[in-house]
Amino acid sequence: AAAGLSYVGAYVINTYKSYDNFLQDKYALLPAVIIICVAAVMFTIGLIGCCATFRESRVGLGLFLAIILIIFIAEVSAFVLGFVYREKVKTDVQGTMRSVFEKYDGKNPESTVVDYLQEQLHCCGVKNYSDWTTTQWFNSTGNNSVPQSCCQQEAKNCTGHLDQPQEL
């Protein structure tokens, strides 16, 4: 379990590099760091449990049980807090995404990240392609289209025009 958690934490940190313009708050890495710390603690606790079982120590097994109960209570607390604050996180991420979309001009680093995000997640805009109609880029191009990164991969002749929403 500790190895699995370490992998998840490292994967989240590695993935964060691709989306760091959307997650401008550096505390976004905090869950990944916590996951890695929990993995290290779980490894230590597992080692204590194995040693206590091998030696058949009642004190060691009692300590192992107490530590496991504390971890269980912490996990339940983290789940409840995540459930309670999920809407705040969603609102914050959408606000940050909207501000990055506003900076889109097709050339700057934020534009590259927006294109990458839309291609990887197979999406267009924050909620849908109509989000682009309020951006500076959409108004400045004047061709009534969204970026090419909004096009479906299967659509070969997609131009991003809003008169062909089935290709977006």
Q: Could you describe the 3D structure shown?
A:
The chain is mainly alpha-helical. It has helices spanning 2-19, 30-55, 58-84, 86-102, 109-121, 136-141. The longest helix has 27 residues, at 58-84.
Set out the fold topology.
Blueprint: H1 2-19, H2 30-55, H3 58-84, H4 86-102, H5 109-121, H6 136-141
Helix pairs in contact: 1-2, 2-3
Protein name: TSN36 protein
InterPro entries: Tetraspanin/Peripherin, Tetraspanin_EC2_sf
Pfam family, one: Tetraspanin
Shape: elongated
Order of helices and strands: HHHHHH
First and last CA, distance: 41 Å
- How many beta-strand runs? 0
The proportion of residues forming helix, as a percent range, comes to 55-70%
Largest sheet: none
| Overall residue-averaged pLDDT value | 81
Q: Which regions are unreliable across 5 or more consecutive residues at pLDDT < 50?
A: none
Radius of gyration: 23 Å
Can you count the helices?
A: 6
TL;DR?
The chain crosses the membrane at residues 28-54, 61-85. With 168 residues, the protein is mainly alpha-helical.
Descriptive terms for the model:
mainly alpha, Tetraspanin/Peripherin, single chain, 6 helices
